[in-house]
Amino acid sequence: MRQDVEHNNDISFLTTIEVAQLLRVHQRTVQRWISSNNLKATKVGPRIWRIRQKDLDEFLQINNSRKQAEEDINSNGNRNT
Question: Which of 12, 17, 29, 36 is deepest in the core (most CB within 10 A)?
Answer without folding.
Answer: 29
